[in-house]
Fold these 2 entries.
Entry 1:
Amino acid sequence: MEVVLADKFRESAIAQEAQSIIGDCVQCGLCVPSCPTHRLLGDDWDSPRGRINLFRELLEDKPPSADARLHIDRCLTCRACEAVCPEHVRYGRLLDITRELFEPGAGRSLKDRLLRRAVRAVVPHRGRFTALLALGRVARKLLPAALRERVPLLSRVPEPRPAGPWPTRAHGRAMLVWEGCVQPALAPDINAATARVLDRCGIRLQPARAGCCGAMSQHMAAPAEARELMRRNIDACWSQIESGVEAIVITASGCAAHLRDYADLLRDDPAYADKARRFAALTRDIAEVVTAELDAGRLPVIPPRPRTPDRRVAWQAPCSLQHAQGLKGVVDRLLKYAGYTPTPIAYPFLCCGAAGSYSILQPEMARDLRAAKLETIMATRPKMIVTANIGCLHHLAEAATIPVRHWIDLLDEALAETERQVASSSTATPSRQG
Ligand code: SF4
Ligand code: SF4
């Protein structure tokens, strides 16, 4: 589709990039059935094809055919459309550019602006988020139940699972693990379980000395803030990278998807372009790392478990894992290795509605998308929901009637159980015959 850039955008490098991306779209509409917002609302302006038309009108500075801000805000950035597009239209990048160009003139209400500012001021900052969460947990305990239920934010404050020990054995191999901004407070068990699993493979896992990956700022039209976070993260990890770590392991697929984009997003920064390339090249989703260790025979055989109903789990693949990183089928295999039976859920490509800040900024849409997702999940009668991203985990757990966990926790438990069985069989006294 051709875009004639308005005069005010002719010299803008990112507008030219958007023009080139839109140029790849042939308006075939093959992406439309994959779009969760189009499925929910049935409005063509809430489909990728409709939104691309709105982007074109904005770049041409024509009066938009529909409420552009509304339909762009409703987009989840799930990139399900990108994953099925035969023309490989880079929709995610296009959306980021459009948000960056048009946010300053978006005409938001004061309430909307304050909410966005508050989200960016708290969520990406581990210390602030952890302190606020701790406050919420205390308030939850102190307030009478009736009052607690009337404060919606308090019903969202979960108690974390205990983290368990972090291994201390020395190994020749070392990797960094990304801590992220919200995961340490919401689910400290995830990285500790990762450290125990990799310890069994002879890998020492060190926490990366970094902060928020920058994804939230990037997707909330604050690219300068995102780039500053990216540069700080590279600086913070650089001595660990120089010391020869094999990989930067990410246990939240949302952060992994963004860290992989560092090379692209900092490509024009003369001081950081090379470092960003090296940084991105070291980035691995934990599912890739464990798969490689399993294939190399460094993980033990887990004896087959009885196929009992309590081993039926629903695998909810985060969009950032299956669409943004293109890692499909990888965790299903690891769950089977751990002795679980993943039940196939309908429309597995659809987003659960978490989508970073989306569940805060678009709460009704996020609730409806989650309700639809939970309906398809519960139709398979699982005993547990398993996922790979803290945002999805927390969002689903708020409304699910069964536990929601990260798959690495289940694998850690399965390996520990195998070790106990091996230890007990080797210490059992053999009975003498005759
Ligand atoms: S599938 Fe690709 S080319 Fe077709 S309308 Fe969607 S974005 Fe455009
Ligand atoms: S990113 Fe997701 S919500 Fe947005 S247009 Fe694409 S499929 Fe639809």
Entry 2:
Amino acid sequence: MKKIQQNLLNWFHKNARDLPWRKTYSPYHVWISEIMLQQTQMDRVVDYFIKWIKRLPDIENITRANEEEVLKLWEGLGYYTRAGNIIRTANSLTEQHNGELPSDYKLLLKLPGIGKYTAGAIMSIAFNKEYAIIDANIERVFARLFNLAKPVKDKKTHAFIWEKTKKMIPHGRAREFNQALMELGALVCIPRNPRCKVCPVRDFCRSLMEDVADKRPVIAKPSQTVFIEMVTGILTYKGKILIQKRKTKGVWANLWEFPGGRLEPGETPEMALVREYAEETELQIGKVKRITTVQHSYTIYRVTLHCYFCSLMDGRFEPVLHAAQEYRLVNPEELCNYAFPAGHRKLIDHLKNSGLLFL
Ligand code: SF4
């Protein structure tokens, strides 16, 4: 065990990537980076993190910022509830903990959006306390190192990994060790074709000894992909575009969008658009003109979004909102000031690139 720890720490000191949240290990930086890294690739997070810290350098700045601006900083990272949780956590820290992240695992777990993994990451990486963390990289490293014959999410296998990770943290070096494990999974013990020849723990790796490294971790049955067809329509009124702000709950809470929704069985996209406008805004739309079709994915969903221009049937613009908290009529060039879900942002980019709207 000691040799594994030592080899890994030595390797980390020579190979750790120069990441912006590794400059000071301030609890605030660690917290924001860990929330951004949930379900998001490291490469994508770096730019978002730099931009975020520049605009919101501390917790106090988050509490003073307008929610629209926070969502805009997050736009494109997906899983928008994370941004809402950051705002709620910042407010709660200001009210209860003098605007600081507590160095207490149980208190961290009470904060919105902070689960076992993030609390462990803050405790170990920011405060250098001996708390284990498990992410996909660490799961893969352990599945190979100990040649685990069941999927890593299997209850007993998962418990085994937690136990091993906890026991392996060298006294006083949790910060480096946890990061070293994750870094090994990201750079060497990679999902396909692990780079065993340069691995610092190769002499202890049971799956390498058994020649099954490429068969670990054992893959669990994949979750089923769900295909969804949706429609949205850009309504212009007196030269301005209608956008509405989604309600405060749900996957895209508080983001802006063009009205629309899912196709029902037997409906064409045009029929669905007319129905959705009536249901969501009580506006009667008439002429519709196809713009494009956008594909995007989130979690297990693969969305086909049919996009249209549309106009009012009777010229009466008196929206009554049923699926949103407010609406605005904005100039086309103002669309870039609002945070939209990925599909609608792709539509806006399409309009911009094809010159269909002056943005
Ligand atoms: S020897 Fe290979 S399989 Fe084993 S931990 Fe290292 S990179 Fe992963």
